[in-house]
Amino acid sequence: MSSGQISTAFHYSMSVGQRMYSIHYLMETSLQPLKRTDVFSRSYRRTKEQRNGEQEKTEEGRKKKE
After folding, report:
1. Domain segments of the chain: what residues?
2. Rounded distance, CA 23 to CA 59, Å?
3. Angle at CA 58, nearest 5°, toward 54 and 62?
4. Model's pTM, two decimal places?
């Protein structure tokens, strides 16, 4: 298998996954427009904050090691 074939296969699997997710997301949002998106955005924001907090912790740990 050449690298070109691998990359196209990977791209195809990615696009299929995104399409499945977007269909699922559209179905969910059309069923419960306000509640669903509000919960989704809130949970997304929370995970983003946690990730930023973890990055800060690792940076602090690095400084302590030095």
Report:
1. 1-31, 35-66
2. 39
3. 170
4. 0.23
